[in-house]
Specification:
With about 290 residues, the chain is an alpha/beta fold. About 40% of the residues lie in helices and about 15% in strands. It has one domain: P-loop containing nucleotide triphosphate hydrolases (Rossmann fold).
Amino acid sequence: MSRGLLKRARVVAAAMQKGGVGKTTTILNLARAAALRGLKVLVIDFDPQGNTTTSLAAEPLVPKQLTIADAILPDEDEPEALADVVIKTIWSRVKVPDSEPERFGSVDLAPATLKPLAKAEKLINASSYGRESRLKQALQPVLGRYDLVLIDNAPALGILLMNALVAADDVFAVSEADEWSADGLAMLADTVKTAKEHYNPGLSWSGVLISRWRNTGPEKYWLQVIVDNFKAGPVWDKDKIPLWSSIKATLSAGKGMDESKEARLRVLARSYRRFVARWVHDEELTV
């Protein structure tokens, strides 16, 4: 995965309009897994709640901090360059295990805060042209600096998600195995279809990541329903992410699961590496 072999970053969006399914946790663990393979990663927090920003930012945001909202404003509102928005994270320098000579990956962040991103969303909705392409336009100048761009989206099917889908090469859903999620996947698939047909014909459905898994009877039933009925892309039912409180606790402590004292978390970290290998080649893994 030499940097020189990649012409530009692969852009991957995580989506699901149902909240509380683990999108942010997934993005954080994917970013960590990619950095551990020596990749340069940019995480875009596209959720006004800003939980990804709170978890990843190396320092608290200062008043009047530039955020992703400033980079996606309509042209008449003088958007900032995305390069000026990006900040360092707690994982700005991640050593690749057992690398000789030593190699390092990195994670940068385009942060978000509630009011600016909500305001930007309103301005984009009110603009007369290019509403769906604001993020794509902002991303273009920095794609050559990274191997992978991960977009964490809000639990909604609005203009911000459409911007993420237009900017992305790949989209995947983070879903629980329950009735509401099964219904939500169908609506999300329609939104992705619209983005692909009208704005981004190159957009690819990567699949569905099953999160917060407890291995209950109802979950097994609804997982099978999802597998049988979701035809837009594959369901990654072999790498289900369990509902373990220690996953979130580890991230809250600013650590990756690979650094955990719990063997089961270190093993689980490899699942995220397999997810990353779907988008960026990993010579040591087969998916």
